Each structure stands twice: as C-alpha cells, then as structure tokens.
Amino acid sequence: MTQNLNEKLILTHLKNRNHDVFKMIFNKHYESLVKFACHYLIDVNAAEDATQAVFIYLWEHCDELNIKTSVRSYLYRAVKNRCLNQLRLLNIRDKHELLYLEAVLESDDTEYMQENELLHSIKAAVSELPKKMQMVFMRKYYNQLSIREIGHEMSHSINTVKVHLHKSRYVVRTSFECAT
C-alpha cells in the first residue's frame, strides 16, 4: 500500500513537472536501463541514446502520460520498445551501409591503401568474427541473401540474424576505420 501511494505521489509530481522528482527517477533508473537496452542493442552508445530518448520523451510528455503501472515498469517497457524499433530500422540501414561499403571499395581515391589491401583488410576482419557472425555476414554480403533467407537457412530468428549482422558490421567497420 505504501509503495502504491509513493508511486501515485511520484506520478503526481512528475505530471506537475517537478524537476527534482524527474532527476530522482533519472538517477535511480538510468544506469540499469542502459544495461537493459544493451541486451537488445549491441552498441553501448546506441543503448544510451535509446534510454536518453525515453527520458526526453518522459519529460516532454509527462503531463500527458497516463502511466497505469509503476514508473520503473513504464521505463523498462518504453526502453524495450525503443530498442525494438531501432532493430527494425537496422534492415533499412543495412542497405545504406552495403551501398557505402561498395562505394568505398569501388572508389579511385585510395590515399591510404590500394584496393587489394582494402579488400584484404575487410576479409581479414570478417575472418576474425565468431563463426556464426561470419556465416551471417558472408551470406548477407557475399551471397546477397535476405535476412529472412539467412534465418531460414541457419535456423535462426530474424532478430538473431539482425543482431549478428549488426555486431559483425560494427566489428568490420571498426577494423576498416582503424586500417584507414
């Protein structure tokens, strides 16, 4: 009962845009929400961005929100939804990153490396990936399979394939950027 009363009081103060209450909520939940977001998104920066976006939305719309659960439950649900939306957008980004990678590989501007060295560094980065990520990356970019086809072929869910692609692209891109 006391916890229920405290939640109602917190929500009331939040709806009244009490900065101290918002700060208390932020300080209490931010770190654990970022860790939670990291379970969905691989990149810590992306997890922080998703969590911050939820808090920004909370502050900007706190007087309009009708939170029926605890603030904690609301925040976890909001972060989860934000992460899932970002994962859905990865499919769109995949296409742009592939176009970027192809453009770099076809570029005549090779100040730092010759094209063969560039290809070698990409292949070396791919060969360093864990086996499953390597298989997903190769099926996507060498065999030009769709995420759905890769998932079916490897008996993985679409989200698992997306996560493997996201991780593998991050590793390859990072090693590629270090090489240039």
Compact overview of the structure:
This protein is an all-alpha fold and 180 residues long. It is 79% helix and 0% strand. It folds into 2 domains: 2-86, RNA polymerase sigma factor, region 2, helix turn helix motif (Rna Polymerase Sigma Factor, Chain: A, Orthogonal Bundle), CATH 1.10.1740.10; 107-179, Orthogonal Bundle (Arc Repressor Mutant, subunit A).
Number of strands: 0
- Radius of gyration from CA coordinates: 21 Å
- Highest CATH level, the class of the largest domain: Mainly Alpha
Q: What is the CATH superfamily label of the largest domain?
A: RNA polymerase sigma factor, region 2, helix turn helix motif
What is the approximate shape? elongated
Return the structural class.
Answer: mainly alpha
Proper CATH architecture of the largest domain: Orthogonal Bundle
Beta content: under 5%
Helix content: over 70%
Write the CATH fold name of the largest domain. Answer: Rna Polymerase Sigma Factor, Chain: A
Distance between termini? 60 Å
Family: Belongs to the sigma-70 factor family. ECF subfamily.
GO biological process, one term: DNA-templated transcription initiation
Protein name: RNA polymerase sigma-70 factor
Domain RNA polymerase sigma-70 region: 26-88
